[in-house]
Amino acid sequence: MTDWGSVFRPDTPLLEIVARGSVMYLSLFVLLRVILKRESGTTGVTNLLVIVLLADAAQNGMADDYRSVTDGVLLVAVIIGWSYLLDVLAYWWPAAARVIRPNSLVLVQDGRILRRNLRREFITDEELHSELREQGIADLSEVREVRMEPDGQFSVIPAGGDKPRKKSRRGPAG
C-alpha cells in the first residue's frame, strides 16, 4: 500500500533544495552566456537553460529520485523563480541587463572585418564568409555592417540598404 504521507512530505531539507537549484541555475547561466553564446541558435540561452533544468528537476520529482513530490515542485519553482528574477533585474536595472542580455557584437563595419571581435567569439574568416554567402553576399564591399546578435544569429546590413538580413546560427562548422 502507498504511504501517501511520504509522497508529499519533503525528505530533503527545503533550504538545501533552494541552494542546490540556485547554484546550478546561476552556474549554468553564466557558463552558457559566456561560452556558448554563438552556438545557442534561435533559442535564447536562458530559455534553453530553463527547459533543460525544468526537465531534469521535474524528472527527479516524478521518477522517485526524490521520495517527495514536494521536493521536485520546489526545485522547479526555484528554477522558474531565478529565470523570472533575472528578467526583472534586466528590465529595471540597466547594469544587470548588460550582463544578462549582452549587446550585439559588430563583426564587419563598412566592408572591413573587425578581427578583434571575430577572435573574441572564435569566428574564423571562413565561417564569416560562409554566413555572408548563405545570405547572398559575395564580397565584403557589399556589406555596411554584420553583427552577431545576443542569441548567436548574424544580422547583415547591405551597403546602401537599411533593411537587415538575419540568419540563425546552427553551431560551429564541422
TrEMBL record:
Superkingdom of origin organism: Bacteria
Domain YetF C-terminal: 96-161
Primary subcellular site in the record, as a coarse category: membrane
Entry keyword set: Cell membrane, Membrane, Transmembrane, Transmembrane helix
GO CC field: plasma membrane
Regions crossing the membrane: 17-36, 43-61, 73-93
Stretch list, region Disordered: 151-174
Subcellular location: Cell membrane
Record's bilayer topology term: Multi-pass membrane protein
Family annotation (InterPro entries): DUF421 (IPR007353), UPF0702_alpha/beta_dom_sf (IPR023090)
Comp. bias regions, Basic residues: 164-174
Annotated family: Belongs to the UPF0702 family.
Protein's name in the database: Uncharacterized membrane protein YcaP, DUF421 family
